[in-house]
Amino acid sequence: MSLKPLIEVQQLSKNVSSHEGVLPILNDINFSIYEKETVAILGASGSGKTSLLSIMAGLDPEYLGSAKLFKQELKDLSEDQRASLRKKHVGFVFQSFLLIPELNALENICLPLEISGKLSPLLIDKAKSLLDKIGLSHRAKHYPSTLSGGEQQRIALARAFISEPQVLFLDEPTGSLDLGNGKMIIDLLFELNRDLGTTIVMVTHDIELSQQCARVLTLKGGKLV
Ligand SMILES: Nc1ncnc2c1ncn2[C@@H]1O[C@H](COP(=O)(O)OP(=O)(O)OP(=O)(O)O)[C@@H](O)[C@H]1O
Ligand SMILES: [Mg+2]
User: What radius of gyration do the chain's Cα atoms show?
Assistant: First the structure.
């Protein structure tokens, strides 16, 4: 049985205009990512990793060429259509964690379920057990401003896991974590991939982590090398 491509990127470029004129930040990129794959994206700071991730996840439709997610050309979809595609199938953990300051740790994790109207006592229990898995049960009622950077990152990861998305995009998922917590998160990620077949696309600076992935894409100055 051949695996289906979940993401197809062809002749993808992105330019931004700055005071110095038009700045190319992604340049003629081509690749596909298949169902159940684990892919690491490596590259120096400023090489275009976050820009590429945002396009693939349907967060940024301002690109040239083609970027398809689940066979749909993302720039051809309306804002609402992209939001609905993300809500159904996509999890995203941002480089900045984007927790909601007015919600406590447990409420932040439950947010995707709340938005999609799926919140139930059973799923709240699931959120609590996730909180336990990431070692933060004792912080359930804490607000983001009272959590450390690593704790916030773990909450953001749990929030992305809770709705069991088909594909999970992560921007430096272990960036704020110490070795022990980093390993715990990585184990959780690969467990999701193994048990649920979640496709994982992650930006990382961690060479060792990238080697655990089935494939590594390396960006240099907006180009795939
Ligand atoms: N909206 C924008 N306007 C102007 N320049 C931008 C914009 N977005 C990104 N850039 C530039 O494009 C380049 C790529 O940015 P990007 O955030 O994708 O890099 P990155 O590889 O994720 O870097 P890092 O490892 O530091 O997070 C950078 O030089 C950045 O300054
Ligand atoms: Mg980045």
Answer: 17
Give 179's pLDDT tier (boundaries 50, 70, 90): confident
Domain count, the chain: 1
Q: Residues 199, 35: contact at Cβ < 8 Å?
A: yes
pLDDT in tens, 41-62: 999 999 999 999 999 999 999 9
- What is the domain range of residue 134? 5-224
The answer, yes or no, to whether any atom of ligand 1 lies below 6 A from the CB of 7, is no
- 202 neighbors 39 (Cβ within 8 angstroms): yes
CATH code for the domain of 38? 3.40.50.300
In the structure encoding, which two tokens stand for residue 71, read together? Answer: 């066979």
Ligand 2 centroid to Cα of residue 155, in Å, is 19
| Residues 204 and 216 sit within 8 Å (Cβ to Cβ) | no
* Ligand nearest to the backbone CA of 219: 1
Hey, how many other C-beta atoms are within 10 angstroms of the C-beta on 6?
21
Q: Is 222 in the pocket of ligand 1 (CB under 6 A)?
A: no
The alpha carbon dihedral of 175, 176, 180, 183 has a sign of negative
CA 195–ligand 1 middle distance (angstroms): 34
Choice among 37-41, 92-96, 97-101, 163-167 with the minimum mean pLDDT: 92-96
Residue carrying the six token digits 């932040």 = 108
State in Å: Cα 50 to ligand 2 middle.
4
HSE-up of residue 102 (Cα within 13 Å, Cβ side): 0
Please state the pTM of the whole predicted model.
Answer: 0.92
182 lines ligand 1 (CB under 6 A): no
